[in-house]
């Protein structure tokens, strides 16, 4: 008999939920993590008592009461509501696009008049068959909103002109005709009180975790000690990139401690002008209504991805999706390896979705294992 039922590669939300649930079912799990900390991309680093979202700001939001109760069973969440601002050439606007934004942009305060204004702008451009992201966005919200809020931000995000980007990137551009700055539409929202590490610690409580261990360095020895592997790393890496790389968009974070209590008065400001090199500034203490003496801000710079840099956003274009299909066909044939999470599935997942996915995977495996 092998020492472990499951070797779980990666201690992000997928790996941690999987390990927790299987341990509850009496399975023996070992979690390995190549970084020097647990938690994957939701990990927070404590700086002068402030939980710094080291891999980008994370706001938990869901409509699923079951998932909300699940996370709250490990740590209590606060009532933080994400209401970011946009800074365009020094002027501040509320986000997401709502009556506050439109008033700030056009000084029109009546919903019907705003609807009319947007409709006129769309009609003026008369784009019937959008060919690229720029056309697509203008045909949905008109030129003013596009030029102030979308063009520069999107071009920085993707490192390409909006006219060269495919239109499928923008499927929806929600506009609200109410004065409502709540970024997410979900019923349940918040931040774990004390940070995301508390959620991960709760999930992994009592489970053996080894950090600083890269699966690929000790692959042969590691598979000897386990019955099955749960792999949450990069799918193409698992197969030694033999059909080429799956590409990503990356980010660089510039974190800075400032000796002042309040830098920008809000958790997030998006910089929508192309001339500002970063896309947003996050001030972490505001996620938890922090009262610390100092503050930590993070400037987020989108970057080209290359092998070795952090993989953040999958690029779901045709080339990558075809390549993914080839790897997925290999993965399907594995009998002792389970793939899950954002990297192994090459898919953008929100936190509530990745938790739901891990719970559903556990359920399926338990059902299959107990079938006569
Ligand atoms: P995750 O990447 O967290 O974990 C995988 C782990 O596997 C990593 O720790 C990695 O080091 C480890 N690993 C990989 N290869 C390995 C190997 N060979 N050996 C050992 N370990 C290995 N969602 C949301 O709901 N609200 C939000 O506000 C945000 N914000 C946000 C901002 C940014 C910038 C990004 C990129 C993403 C978000 N998200 C989000 C999404 C959220 O980050 C995501 O849902 C989870 O982190 C996914 O968890 P996983 O476990 O799938 O991956």
TrEMBL record:
GO MF assignments: flavin adenine dinucleotide binding; UDP-galactopyranose mutase activity
Domain of life from the UniProt record: Bacteria
Protein keywords: FAD, Flavoprotein, Isomerase
Residue stretches making up the UDP-galactopyranose mutase C-terminal domain: 149-348
Any one GO CC term of the record: cytosol
Transmembrane segments: none
Keyword Isomerase part of the UniProt annotation: yes
Essential cofactor(s): FAD
Gene3D superfamilies in the record: NAD(P)-binding Rossmann-like Domain
Family note: Belongs to the UDP-galactopyranose/dTDP-fucopyranose mutase family.
Name recorded for this polypeptide: UDP-galactopyranose mutase
Species per Swiss-Prot/TrEMBL record: Croceivirga radicis
């Amino acid at each position: 008999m092998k020492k472990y039922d499951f070797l779980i590669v990666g201690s992000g939300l997928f790996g941690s939920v999987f390990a927790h649930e299987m341990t509850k079912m009496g399975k023996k799990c070992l979690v390995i993590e190549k970084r020097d900390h647990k938690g994957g991309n939701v990990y927070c680093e404590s700086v002068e008592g402030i939980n710094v979202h080291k891999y980008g700001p994370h706001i938990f939001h869901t409509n699923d009461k079951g998932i909300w109760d699940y996370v709250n069973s490990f740590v209590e969440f606060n009532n933080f509501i994400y209401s970011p601002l946009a800074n365009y050439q020094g002027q501040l606007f509320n986000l997401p696009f709502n009556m506050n934004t439109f008033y700030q942009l056009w000084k029109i305060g009546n919903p019907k008049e705003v609807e009319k204004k947007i409709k006129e702008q769309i009609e003026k451009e008369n784009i019937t068959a959008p060919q690229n992201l720029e056309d697509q966005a203008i045909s949905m919200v008109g030129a003013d909103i596009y030029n102030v809020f979308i063009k520069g931000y999107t071009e920085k995000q993707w490192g390409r002109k909006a006219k060269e980007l495919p239109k499928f990137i923008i499927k929806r551009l929600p506009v609200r005709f109410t004065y409502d700055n709540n970024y997410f539409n979900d019923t349940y929202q918040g931040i774990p009180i004390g940070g995301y590490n508390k959620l991960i610690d709760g999930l992994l409580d009592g489970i053996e975790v080894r950090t600083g261990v890269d699966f690929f360095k000790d692959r042969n020895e590691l598979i000897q000690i386990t019955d099955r592997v749960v792999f949450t790393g990069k799918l193409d890496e698992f197969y030694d990139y033999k059909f080429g790389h799956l590409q990503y968009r990356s980010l660089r974070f510039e974190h800075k401690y400032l000796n002042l209590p309040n830098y920008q008065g809000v958790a997030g400001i998006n910089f929508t002008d192309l001339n500002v090199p970063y896309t947003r500034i996050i001030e972490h203490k505001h996620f938890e209504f922090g009262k610390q003496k100092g503050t930590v801000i993070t400037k987020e710079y989108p970057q080209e991805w290359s092998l070795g840099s952090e993989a953040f956003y999958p690029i779901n274009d045709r080339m990558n999706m075809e390549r993914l299909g080839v790897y997925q066909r290999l993965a399907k044939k594995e009998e002792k390896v389970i793939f899950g999470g954002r990297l192994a599935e090459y898919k953008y997942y929100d936190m509530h979705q990745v938790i739901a996915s891990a719970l559903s995977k556990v359920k399926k495996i338990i059902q299959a294992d107990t079938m006569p």
